Structure formats: structure tokens, C-alpha cells
Amino acid sequence: LLQQIGSIGALFLQLLLVVVFSLVFYVNGTTLDALTERIAHRIGGAQALQARDQARQAIRSVALGVVLTAIIQSALALLGLLLVGVPLAVLITFICFLLAIAQIGAALPLLVVAGWLYWGQGETGWALFMAGWGLLVVGGLDNILRPLLITRGIRMPLTLVFTGVIGGLLAFGLIGVFLGPTLVAIAHTLLLAWLQEPSNPEPPVPATPQ
After folding, report:
1. What is the residue extent of each domain of the chain?
2. Which residues neighbour 64 within 8 Å (Cβ) at sequence distance 6 or greater?
3. How do residues 88-137 score in pLDDT, each as one tens digit?
4. How is 67-80 classified by DSSP, letter by letter?
5. What is the pTM of this model?
């Protein structure tokens, strides 16, 4: 039990850090954008600037896709809980939001509620409604809205984006939801730039003697 409480506490702490860093980056966005542009140009010129732009767009797209989808899913989950009259609806909704951000699935708490309604309360009709609401409405939205939002304005395959999200989450926690796609975007841009370079560049022409 103590280990589970500690895991939940760590999850809350990571979420708090994500919110704090997001606010800091949002407030100082213009300054940080200009700073990263100068650093990228100094490090690698045009290729580094292209990688930096791709990473910036990846962060923006993932933030829009993951966070906005989680908010909408949580709102729909709360609506379903209020319709059924489930106690602690706000707390369950917050858990749905955390699980949506963590890419576990916002529908999972609603399935638990459906089981409680069926076996604990004997409400077969409401249990079926809650299970269907969780799987089809809340869970189905995740498969439709999130890919559409993430792929808007980003020149990178959706598979790579999700690989970055899941890999970053496993490696770095909640902050990895944004850090993972950023690293993948930089690697993808540099790889494409490297592949576009000529494999056998022509040797320089020697200078003509005067």
C-alpha cells in the first residue's frame, strides 16, 4: 500500500513539474525561442535551425494533441459520471486526466466504475452505459482526435511521434511525453539532412597557378 501511495505521489509530482515548466516556457516563450535560434545557428547553421524548428513544432503538436485530448476526454468522463450519479466524480475525472496524459487511457477508471455498478450496486443498465461510454466515447476519442491534432503542422510520420511519446514516457516519466518527441524530431531531421547530402562529393578544383 505504501509503495502504491508513493507511486501516486511521484505521478502527482511529475505532473506538477510538467505544469510548472510549461508555464515558465509559455511566459518566456519569445525570449527562449530567440535564444534557441541563435544557439542552433551557432552550432550547426541551417541544418541545426531546421532541426530546432522541427523540434519546436513537435513539442507544440504533442502538447496540443496529448493535453487537449486529455482535457476533452476528462470532460466527457465527468459528464458520464454525473449522468450516472457516481460519487467522487471529480476525483475520478482527475484520475482519468492523469491516465490520459500518461498514455494509459482515460477509459480505464470508467471501466472500474462500470464493474462497481454491476457487482457492487446491481445496476446492470448503468454499468453497461458506463462501459460503453468509456470504451466508445472517451476511449474512441483518443484514437480519432489525438492523431489529428498531433499531425497538424508537423512534417514527421505519426508512428515516429507516438514512438517518441511512449519511449519518452518510459524513460523520463511524464516530462518525457514532450521530451521524447523532441529528441525524435531532432534525430529525424538530422537523418534526412544526412541522407540528402551527396554520397561522393566532388573534390575541390585545384587553383590555377598564376
Report:
1. 33-194
2. 149, 150, 152
3. 999 999 889 888 887 788 999 999 999 999 998 888 999 999 999 999 99
4. IHHHHHHHHHHHHH
5. 0.71
